Amino acid sequence: MALVLIVEDNPINRDVLGRRLERRGFSIRFAVDGPSGIAEAKALMPDVILMDIGLGEMDGCEATRRICAIPETAGIPIIALTASAFESDRAKALAAGCVDFDTKPVDLPRLLGKLELVLKDRMPASAQGAA
């Protein structure tokens, strides 16, 4: 079961997305802001991080840069989530180190496809054959 860290400051968004992903077999943990997202990434070593870009004092791009700068967490794929669908926001998130970008409200089938792709890339070849 893949462990997903959701970094999201809105409690309703956290709850809804977390429950939807849990129903599809993911193990979910949460962080409520950039600094706790960085701390939880180090403590949990999740398989993937869903990072809200519009966080408070430290936005998701800065948190992503910091997670990518830590040798132990640098390999964790991060998918940016934001209500803004501008190409400049996508470019900013990818430049910060996110491997992909998706918009809110979340289109669950689309997000599940993105999760499947990044998790497939992280699974060892021996485990992919068993899946």
UniProtKB/TrEMBL annotation:
PROSITE patterns: RESPONSE_REGULATORY
Family annotation (Pfam families): Response_reg
Positions of the Response regulatory domain: 3-119
Residues annotated as signal peptide: none
Listed name of the protein: Response regulator
Gene3D superfamilies the UniProt entry points to: 3.40.50.2300
Keyword Iron-sulfur: no
Keywords from the named record: Phosphoprotein
Residue stretches spanning the membrane: none
Superkingdom, taxonomy of origin: Bacteria
Residues found modified as 4-aspartylphosphate: 52
InterPro entries for this protein: CheY-like_superfamily, Sig_transdc_resp-reg_receiver
